[in-house]
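[stage:ingest] chain + small molecule (adenosine-5'-diphosphate)
[stage:ingest] validated
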Amino acid sequence: MDKQQRKKMQFSAIYLVIALMVAWLFQALVFRPMVIRQSEVPYSQFLAELEAGTIDRVQLTQDRILYTCCSEGEGDDGKAYNVVPVDDPDLIERLAASGVTFAGEISSNSALPMLLGWVIPLLPLALVWYFGLRRMGQGGAGVMSIGKSRAKEIQGERTGIKFADVGGVDEASFELQEIIAFLKDPKRFARLGAKLPKGVLLVGPPGTGKTLLAKATAGEADVPFFSISGSDFVEMFVGVGAARVRDLFEQAKAKAPCIIFIDEIDAIGQSRATVGAIATNDEREQTLNQLLSEMDGFEPNQGVVIMAATNRPEVLDQALLRPGRFDRQVQVGLPTEQGRLEILKIHTQGVTLDSDTDLARIAKVTAGFSGADLANIVNEAALLAVRSEHTGVMMDDFDLAIERVVAGLQRKMRLKPEVRRRVAYHEGGHALVAYLQPDTDPVHKVSIVPTSKGALGYTMQMPDEDTYLLSKRELEERMAVMLGGRAAELLVFEDTSTGAANDLERATEIARRMVTEFGMTEALGPVRYASPAGMGYLGQPGGLRQDISPDTARLIDQETRTIVESAGRSAFQLLKQHRDALDAIADTLQEHEVINAEQIAHIVGSLMPSAA
Ligand code: ADP
Ligand code: MG
Ligand code: ZN
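[stage:predict] done
[stage:export] tokens:
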């Protein structure tokens, strides 16, 4: 215990002593005299005086008999006496017989002393409790500080982050310009009578820079940034989350113009209906209600903008999305090639790059990577460069880093030769089918190095450009590539293995969506059979619509199967036609473990110049 703590202990001990003394004085000077103001007499004396006729007036309360007697003249009420009654059934008769005035009374004047008698001894206890908890609270996350929002700790942080620190979010930052203009000068908007949305919801996959973007918005507008994460609200005590929300808004309003940012809002804002089906969570619901009422409770031009982020907009409670709440949504998607290049540039600013390192090429091969993935790759590459004592981060470092991020860290794992051979043919099958089809993304790299994620090998394709739209034919070719591994196994070993499970899953998924979402079959026509978007788990395509007849459902299954089978057949045919190329690729793979696009082109080209 350090000096300061001891001082605080002493301080509260003194407080306690003072409190006890005050309580005692109160008892001695106020409470007791109030009860004993009238002198107490035995019941027998009361009866004697009653008989003697000296009593003027009697008051009957629940636990006392109060009387005055012996008045000597006008205006003199005489002395008051106080009797503890005994159980005397004849009392009323006696009183009536003696002819005194008597009245019952609700023991109101004894209620106060009773109350005080209880409260005063409790007071020191309350004080002990209070100080005890306060001391516990000094640790930081004490019981007394629970209600205070964690946002307080950053006291409306000035983030200092600018849009220049966020890459590939041109559209989103364009949409946020208005908010920034508003925060810089709320009065101008008020003068013109323009109402800005109170809430802006940033929507996008994890790691795309939503949090970063919110901070940059605050940084650009140069206003305080209050941030709290939805998961912070899920506390141990009911009511705490709601108190936090109240507190957060209070602080923010005092610091307006400013931004309140609620990260991972789905943690509290999940649809009440959805959750109710599984388990009710009062705490979350209370927090959500508090948030809604706070949002409704302030004027649009007060200068507080509430931003929130989620990667699961479909689970949010509709109440959150109503006008006056989070009625503006800003999409923060995965970066395009150009965006990826910008992000790579931002994150390599403090990194020494080798002269051969080509960020544009890295951006090209990392389609589907988020900003966070790219930041991760840059860091991994730098670490690898340090380990291999390169003077700058080289392209090889980046290639390896990408591989690690894609497939998990490489692990040395020795496979039995026959298993390796099978894997080589399987991956070779994928690669060759991809290579032979005209509308398929070119193969970037094929590997039979087992990954820590459990894959025995992988084939990496490199999209020529970011794909937004796929034709039916492209989908069919994709499925053929996915089934190429299994087809190769069938062709060479005349049986199949468990290695194709994931390929089948992906191919089936595509086929199913072709039937139920894209209307790509003759038999079922251009009708949507899938359940409405967003109804499935995490926005993934869910099941079928509820109102589908069993016959249609059977037809959907049949069609899906037909599509997958036909893709499998065309993969098999291609491989059968180019069996020598398949053998060559598999041999090279077994020898070198990894082959790249040029090597594949070379192998296939040398075998049949016409195909290259
Ligand atoms: P989200 O909130 O969307 O999950 P974050 O903003 O938390 O993503 O991003 C995590 C990290 O990834 C950031 O701190 C940043 O280093 C990096 N990052 C993500 N997106 C970008 C981007 N668009 N530009 C620059 N860096 C990014
Ligand atoms: Mg985030
Ligand atoms: Zn496969």
